[in-house]
Every structure is written in structure tokens, then in C-alpha cells.
Design a protein that fits this description.
3 domains, 368 residues, 35% helix, Rossmann fold, 10 strands, 10 helices, two-stranded antiparallel sheet
Amino acid sequence: MSLRIHQDHHRFREIVRGRIKANLRKYVQKGEMMGKKGKDAISIPVPFIDIPRFKYGQKQQGGVGQGEGEVGQSIPPGDDEAAGKQAGEGKGEHALEVDVTLEELAQILGEELQLPNIQDRGDDKVVSQRLKYTGVNTTGPESLRHFRRTFKQALKRQIATGTYNPKSPVIIPLREDRRYRTYKVQEQPHTNAVILYMMDVSGSMGDEQKEIVRVESFWLDTWLRHQYKGVEVRYIIHDAVAREVDRETFFHTRESGGTMISSAYKLCRDIIQADYPAASWNIYPFHFSDGDNWSADDTRACVNLLKSDILPVVNQFAYGQVESPYGSGQFIKDLREAFDGEDNVALSEIPDKDGIYASIKDFLGRGR
């Protein structure tokens, strides 16, 4: 019975997985499910799944409902709460919310978008140490005393010497009965990554543009956390000046000043140089803007910063241009002209929420 339950559960999960894949584009565009995110899982509404059940046919004689009255006699309406209410047209919407781990969600995203696994940069890794218990010894620190082995050794000694009394089973370990765990230190190399989100918060970037960035960053985070054991995230906002902020401030700040994108790139460079050496970290700067910059001179400064300080040390630099009725949209054209053919530069135009799906593919489809 237990095996059958496991088989049924596995089959149900496969059905749910298929439904999620079939509706992935819709889920990518929606931001409300991020409000249902837990530490390791997220609730996703899937179309209601009908469970097969028996349905009984009409009885030919007798049975429930055979009361007084003649065949064909009309039944007057009752006086319950439903009386007088009109039925609506069409069938109702049924949805079932299922919890899906972020790891599984990332796998589905990768399968559906055909995303390649990321190739780590360089040979140096971040190394953590782990203690592995390998055996038992007669000497060691008291903190590593193996109580069960010590008790068994004392019991065997008392039985062998004839001092054990079953009527009064008191076991008193002596010094020679004590046993201690032995261990060795294992070094475990693993790769870490840092994501640096930069966003223009000047007056031309409205709430709709910020919501697009919020939704897309969730999926970028999900994929990169699937690829790396440890991921840190830093947030930079800018108008004419840049500053580092927390996540809440990042998505809910709106300024009214002009835009100097180079200020964000300078702060990004400084954070990388101070905290994330390229030999040990996989580095992913993502910048979102409506493409409106202060001047051509500042755009040239941005290109120079990218070429000299940022691109040589990052896995990939990604720029997403969110369409705005107030932005000129020129910046992505300048970047295309300056970095045509660069392997670690990914550029994407995001006209609206429908464009998020293709933009994720633009950013993650190279496996860098």
C-alpha cells in the first residue's frame, strides 16, 4: 500500500509539472505568485485536476426519494436561501494551488526555455570545511564522547567479569570503557555567485516599469540560485547619482531628477573590486533602464567603464531596456554599436510584461 501511495504521488507531481510547463509563459508574466513565496517553495495555481470517481445511475424501483405524490407532479420551489437566485452563464473557473520548490521551478524554467547550465569562470573556488566522522577511538575530547559505544563497552566488561546484576542493572562506565568519535576535516570546493541589480529610478521609470523589473529579477534569481550553491544579491539605484539600497527600497523608490548611468556603473565597479574577487566569484551585473541617459558624453563614459573595469571580471553583463513613454530608448542602440559580438554582453528590449519571457532567454540562454 505504501509503495502504491508513492507511485500515485509521483504521478500526480508529474501531472502538475506538465501543467506548469504548459502554462509557464503565463506564470512568468504574473507577479502575484511571488507574494506566495516561502523560504524554499512557492505556491502556483494550476488548472483544477478532476479526480476520477464513481457515479451511480438511476434506480428502477424503490430507493431514496420515493415519497408521496404522483409521477409527473410538479414540485413547487423551496423557501431556502437559494430560492430566487439566478444561475450564471458558463462554467466556473477552478484552480488548485500546489507548492513547488524553487529548485523544481528552476528545472522547469530551464527545460522550457532550453537554458544551458552555466559554465563556471576560472579554476579557483570558494572552499568550505566540513567535519566527517570516520570511526571510534579510546581517546579524545569529552565533547566527542560516544555515549552509546561507551555504555555498550561498560556492559560487556561487567558481564565478562561477572559483576552485572540483572535484578539491579546499574552500568557504571570506567575510564577504559570510554569511546570517542574520530573525524577528519574535508575541504569542499563550491562556487559562489553575486548578482548586482542596477535600476534607473528617475521620473521616467514608472510603477509599471518597476513591476516588470521585479518580476524578471525573481526568475533570474531562481535560475542562478539553481546553478550556484551560494548567491548574494546587491541592489543599486540611480538617477543623476547612484547609491546602494536594500531590496524593498530598490523596487519602491522613484526620483524626479535626471539620469547619469555612469554613476551606477562606477558604484558597481567599486563593489566588485572591494568584495568580490573574480578568481573566487561568478559575477552578474543586471542593469534596467528606459534607455534615457543625460548626455552622449556620459554614455561614452559608461562604455569605457564597461570595457576597462567591468567586462574583464564578470561572467556576463546584462542590460534590459524597459519601454517607457518618456524614455528615448537610445542607450541600448549605443551599447549594441559598442559591444557588437561581445560574448559576455547580453542586451534585451522589454516592451511590456509579455516581453519578460523572451528577455529571460536573452539573458540566460548563453550559459555564461
